[in-house]
Amino acid sequence: MSLPDSPKMPKFMQLLQWIYNPLQLMEASQQTCGDFFTLWLTNKQPMVFMSNPQAIQEIFTTHLENLDSRASAAILQPLLGDNSLLLLSGKTHQRQRKLLTPSFHGDRMRAYGDLITQLTKNVISKWQIGEPFSVSHSMKEITLQVILKAVFGLHEGDRYNQLQTRLCSILGLSSSSLRATLSFIPALRLNLGRWSPWGNFLYQREEIDKLLYAEIQERRNHPDPSRNDILSLMMSARDENGELMTDVELRDELMTLLVAGHETTASALTWALYWIHHLPSVREKLLAELDSFHNADLNEITRLPYLNAVCQETLRIYPIAMITIPRIVKSPIEIMGHKFAPGTMLLGCIYLIHHRPDLYPQPDKFQPERFLEKQYSFSEYLPFGGGNRRCLGMAFALFEMKLVLATVLSQMDLKLVENYSVKPIRRGVTLAPSSGKWLIATGQRQKAEKSAIQV
Fold first, then answer.
1. Is 136 exposed, middle or buried (0-12, 13-18, 19+ CB in 10 A)?
2. Which of 205, 269, 273, 284 has the fewest CB atoms within 10 Å distance of its CB?
């Protein structure tokens, strides 16, 4: 069993490229090696990148006994904990997923529509007319508040404020490529006290844990069946044996939902606002669709076809997750004629699949219309991963994204700062837009009163 070709560079250089310039590494590797190529990004096993939809389909449909996803997500263990859905496998993973799934579907999810809309209005009311502002900062403020209120179920107060500060701090520790190096090279994790990066991370994590466990204990001591936040739903969920989730499981899943739903959604919203205002035709079509929407039920706004297409194209061109969660081969398997030995790590390259010209003509151009003209399969379009590891919060993330965009565009007239370049960069384990103040609020939209989303 031979591995697919690898780019002609030392293994350590491959890791540095992956940390500091992942898109260039993937594109160059595909050009020289094809749809299957091998990178050495860990000391333990080779990582085989696949960008052929048929290969992705075979991975997603392979029997679970042949592939294991648990160890491959270990990079996130220090933050998420051992009981995170991302780090579980087999029956434990199935149990946890069943317990969490009901919280993200149906009427329970739609109940958060008014909250998301109001939080968005609160944030955009701070924008100064004529002054450039950081889109990324504003979107992160919205999505963090959604997490704290809709997911954690916290109300304004001391614990809310402390958690907001601590969570921002700990997530900021992995924000740059340099800081992300701590995640990819464990040997650099040296606890030299609170003034060292790793020591500061451990301190912030301990303080966050104290706050979360205090909140969980308070809920257990004073149960309130009328609450509909996701933490409350998780605390009342029982598995097939009638058992509740433990405090540690609840803590780890809360941190997982934070990491999976805060900066990721904020990055997607930031990209969407960039493309909408970078391309006047996209903005005009979207505003026309929003202005024609008069339904008092905000949940119906998620059905608007062009708004949906804009969100889909945003997640295609620069997917927040560049790769699927890797699967480790447990027993010999064959994918599209390639035979892989146990210990090999297989992953789908979301970014390269989304940039295949045979699937997406002119893949570097932002064209929402492609999603109105064609329906893509789960192995051709996979911004949320796929198979039994597809992001559990996908529906919630899309719902939030559409409501925030609709609210912002219905309320404010915005324009880009001229000659400001926004580029994709690594942020932790994700792909994000570069920072900066590149959007200006020029005034409130005069047609806002025609929309169902009132000022």
1. buried
2. 284
Q: How far apart are CA 109 and CA 260, in angstroms?
A: 16
Exposure class string for 216-254: b at 16+ Cβ within 10 A, else e: beebeeeeeeeeebbbbbbbebeeeeeeebeeebbbbbb
Angle value at C-alpha 227, between 140 and 389, nearest 5 degrees: 55
Place of tokens 């333990």: 44
Whole-angstrom Cα distance, residue 350 to residue 264?
15
Q: What would the two tokens of residue 57 be? A: 């389909």
Residue 132: in which H helix or E strand, if any?
A: strand 132-134
* All structural domains of the chain: 11-450 (1.10.630.10)
User: Coil, strand, or helix at residue 439?
Assistant: strand
Q: Element (H or E) spanning 445, and its range?
A: none
The Cα 280–Cα 403 span in angstroms is 21
3-state class percentages of the chain: helix first, strand second, coil last, to nearest 5: 55, 10, 35
Distance from chain centroid for Cα 53: 21
| 69, 60 Cβ separation under 8 angstroms | no
Nearest one of 142, 257, 164 to 208, comparing CA atoms: 164
Span 212-261, pLDDT tens digits: 999 999 999 998 888 888 888 888 888 888 888 899 999 999 988 888 88
